[in-house]
Amino acid sequence: MFKKLDKLIIKAFIGPFIATFFITLMVLVMQFFWLYIDDFVGKGLGVDVVLKFIWYQSAVLVPLALPLAVLLSSLMTFGNLGESFELVAIKSAGISLLRFMRPLLIISIFISILAFLFSNYVIPVAYLKSRTMLSDIVWAKPAFDLKEGVFYDRMNGFAIKIGEKEKNDSVIRDVIVYEQQQNGLQDNFVIARSGIMRVSADKRFLEFNLKDGWRYQEKGNNPNSAKNDYIRLGFKEYNKQFDISSMLPTFTNDSSNRNNEKFYSMRQLNRAIDSLKKENAFIKNNLEKGLYLSFLFNRYLDSTSAKKNPGDSAFQAAKTLDELLPDSARYTVAQQAIGEASSMSASINAADMNMTERDKQYRKHQIEWHRKIVLSVACVVLFLIGAPLGSIIRKGGLGTPLIAAICFFMVFYFSTTVGEKFAKEGQWSTFSGMWLAIFVLLPIGFFLIYKAMRDSQLFNKEAYTRLFRAIANFFRRFKPATGRNISN
């Protein structure tokens, strides 16, 4: 009986989980594209480039989509079973809720392990490639796009104006091509009544086949000289090529962006954290030892403390340094001391900025180390919330479960973001900052399990109606008594 029950709950869970996972992943990818839509439009990107970027970015967002999919699918599964009174029949047969949750708990742990392996081995590579492609796309020049009646001047050395384009964008009319020579001394013009415009097969050249026009050319070394030659050539057909290869996005090698903690696996992060810890300790130790070595008083510390000359009455009688210096040397010594203090202040500020940045890098590596584990553990924690919450709500479909899932996922997301921010700034430890969401949601999960096992009326509006009615009746009993006391 239990084996059939396990198959029942697993079959009821797998379908909603797969559907909600891909829906969640699609929503996250679309949300990412809304942020960078202006950087993708008008760049002449091919379909293969866009699909490749979507593939890499989808892989990056998988660890974030998995917890939400587990939460929503567990809510839907137990909500559907509760709405169809199957949970009531199972409990009446003497099977506890924990026993009924066990197969899905095992599956959620398995999903958590897969999420960790994915974050450790796939995400660094996918994130590296997606960030490299995104950087290249953002910095790429706009694609070639000629508009009617407007000079296009984004090609170096040329400005093109087209009076009219046919619907197929190939036949053009009233063409003006302004060409500036590299030496900047002569300007050439080409004017044609019509022509055919096409892009080469490798998309590196724009080809104009112009007809019925004139070419105006200036020759000479001085643009203001009257001795320059002005040439006008008429043509029936004239071919012109424009190099547009610089406008196409160029994709750099992935190895140029590898020095980032987000591109590391756990093994690489452990090695980097250990190296940064040793380097920071070594630099801090050297700063503490070498900070005062440049000052002259270090050479005479013993002579002013342990090795005092008992016969030197002037030294023993002096209370301040000024009493030991002649009047002529006091100003010089004071100015030298001020200069040394300013130099020390600048050195301390530079060292403090250096150590602050190095500590920040150290914390970033620790944050990424914890993130890989937290996003995996979140699958189990959110299941512990979704399963009992669904059995309490007893509503299937996407209505109520979706609202509840979004609310708890927002708590998870915002608490993770706040904890990460405090951890980056050094106000909290990286452990407490990155595990804040787990510490907040885990007690909620245990509380919901406790309530679900006892058939709690936590989300039953009739129970709250009876409670408020009882409170109102309680206060209503004291109103007449209060009135009699006042009249008496």
From TrEMBL:
Q: Which InterPro entries does UniProt cross-reference here?
A: LptG/LptF_permease (IPR005495)
Give the chief site where it resides: membrane
Does Membrane count among this protein's keywords?
yes
Bilayer topology reads: Multi-pass membrane protein
Q: Which domain of life is it from?
A: Bacteria
Q: Where are the transmembrane segments?
A: 12-34, 54-79, 100-123, 373-391, 398-416, 428-450
Q: Where in the cell is it found?
A: Cell membrane
Keywords tagged on the record:
Cell membrane, Membrane, Transmembrane, Transmembrane helix
Question: Per its record, how is this protein called by name?
Answer: LptF/LptG family permease
